[in-house]
Amino acid sequence: MSYWHDKVAIVTGGSAGLGLAIAQSLGQQRAKVVIAARREEGLERARMHLKALGYPVVTEIVDVTQDDDVQRLVQNTLDRYNRLDLMVNNAGRSMRSEVIGTTPDQFRELMELNLLGVVRCSQAAVPHLLSTGGHLVNIGSLASKSVAPYLGAYPATKFAVAAYTHQLRLELAPQGVHVLLVCPGPIHREDSETRYSIETSGLPEQAKQPGAGVRVRRIKAHDLSEKILRACRRRQPEVVVPGKARWLFAISQLAPRCGDWLLRRFTR
Question: Are 1 and 207 contacting, i.e. CB atoms less than 8 angstroms apart?
Fold first, then answer.
């Protein structure tokens, strides 16, 4: 029997991309999955896709920037299943702009989604994860550890997610809750080449590329979802993909000038 059999999971940002891949991997292992996202049409497509594969899921229309939505999501899950074993905080987005031209309002908006959404969902879920010895998974980015140019407010929000997750890990691990930070590079998407075409007007060509041009192989969402679930079973503290990025993180801390040179060297 799978480790995830009959365990209850919530995946925010679960209607597409990595969130949908995690929901599918959980469904394959017979978990009970609730996927949350803001748009009803996207949720319905995801539900039908998973249903066709034989993995029925529950969907919830949720905006993680709204306290009431997050509380309702967790309470509805408890009302339905009476437990919670896994919370995946995947909702978020990137952006493209020069950082000096990114306004305080733009910083505030992205921080509200990428960081405070994680805070809201974590605070709502943790009391119930304590009772199951469950898992809290926060999806960061390579930009949680090292920046690239032209990502606007995105790295600041993802560095904050990394710090918050580290604090959670130190405080919750002694109480039996596993906390995992996931730091992936660019994930393959069908619209990768055009996704930021409007935002990147007037910016260098590299800004239009996945990861703002950092030369790493694009990650398959399904492969990453399997790594995440495996890391949960092993109760690992972090997943970094590609793993070689850890060398850059270390070099950037020890020798920032050398780290900056490497970043420029491996950016288109």
Answer: no
Can you give the residue ranges of every domain in the chain? 8-265
Whether residue 173 has pLDDT greater than 90 = yes
C-beta neighbour count of 263 within 10 angstroms: 17
Which residues are known to be catalytic? 154
CATH class for domain 8-265? alpha beta
Beta bridge partners of 68: none
pLDDT at 192 over 80: no
For 119, 130, 266, the CA distances from 124, given in Å and listed in that order, are 9, 12, 40
DSSP letters of 231-267?
HHHHT-SEEEESTTHHHHHHHHHH-HHHHHHHHHHTB
What average pLDDT score do residues 252-261 get?
Answer: 94
Tokens standing for residue 104: 């305080």
* pLDDT for residue 197 is more than 70: no
Contact 154, 145 (CB under 8 A): no
Q: Which residues pair with 97 in a beta bridge?
A: 151
b/e sequence 122-134, b meaning 16+ C-beta within 10 Å = bebbbebbeeeeb
